[in-house]
Specification:
Blueprint lengths: L1 H18 L2 E3 L10 E5 L6 H8 L4 E6 L7 H13 L2 E4 L6 H14 L3 E4 L11 E2 L4 H9 L3 E7 L1 H4 L13 E4 L15 H19 L3 E2 L3 H21 L4
Parallel strand pairs: 1-8, 2-5, 2-7, 3-4, 3-5, 6-9
Antiparallel strand pairs: 7-8
Length: about 240
């Protein structure tokens, strides 16, 4: 109930007013039955913009940190994310990937829409990064289509570290569903999982027009953070005159 209150009364109208999203290809999202919507991830706002424009309810796998904040603020944030259709997933440790897959398959098993960002984290520079194979595992095990989705302009509207979004229009593009039934029974073959994931990422790339980087986003983020820390250390050691 609260999900639809947010979508149609509170958050949805506000997001449409702020971002004035141009929506393309919405007819590609199945009206009934289980399916995965796989998109690029450029902004914190992506979590809410896509659900706001879809006709059906969609459930996302979200990082557990959104649900574990301390104090009243943390509890309110957790309650908000749950009400908005987010499922917490612990992304640390060896079992993190399997836990996400179990949660995702549970959503699909109920005939619902599952939203996932194959990159695994937000892009820190607006480029599209290599997809993780969990999306392929879920698509093959559940036997469901994958609808590629591209968020366009949300990086510029709310770059990393920006709390209040900038008022500017964005676009949300949905592509034709990808059918991977030809790989039925091959969900344990690494080469197949990589091929399926790369096909999904190529479809997203074709919709978004981003520059593609054949590296995982988390690794690129860590390298960029390390380089920035090294620059700061060098700057502090520079003489004042």
């Amino acid at each position: 109930m609260f999900y639809y209150l947010l979508k149609y009364v509170v958050l949805g109208p506000l997001l449409r007013l702020l971002f004035r999203p141009r929506i393309e290809g919405l007819e590609h999202v199945p009206e009934t039955g289980a399916a995965i919507v796989a998109g690029n991830h450029l902004s914190f706002s992506d979590h809410f913009l896509m659900p706001a424009v879809l006709k059906r309810r969609i459930t996302f796998l979200a990082k557990a940190e959104y649900f574990t904040g301390p104090g009243i603020k943390g509890r309110l944030t957790a309650a908000f994310f749950r009400s908005a259709g987010q499922i917490p997933v612990d992304r640390s440790g060896k079992e993190a990937g399997q836990a996400a897959i179990r949660e995702g398959l549970g959503v699909l098993g109920k005939g619902e829409l599952l939203g996932i960002y194959p990159e695994g984290t937000r892009s820190h520079d607006g480029r599209l990064y290599k997809g993780k194979v969990g999306v392929a595992v879920m698509a093959l095990r559940a036997g469901v289509p994958v609808v590629p989705c591209a968020m366009i302009g949300t990086f510029e509207a709310q770059p990393p570290g920006t709390v209040v979004p900038r008022l500017r229009p964005v676009a949300i593009r949905f592509g034709e569903p990808l059918d991977f039934s030809r790989y039925t029974g091959m969900e344990n073959e690494k080469a197949v999982l990589r091929a399926v994931t790369d096909e999904i990422m190529y479809a997203i790339l074709s919709l978004s027009g981003q520059e593609y980087v054949d590296r995982y986003a988390a690794d690129a983020k860590a390298q960029a953070a390390a380089a920035e820390a090294a620059r700061e250390r060098r700057f502090r050691r520079l003489p004042l005159s």
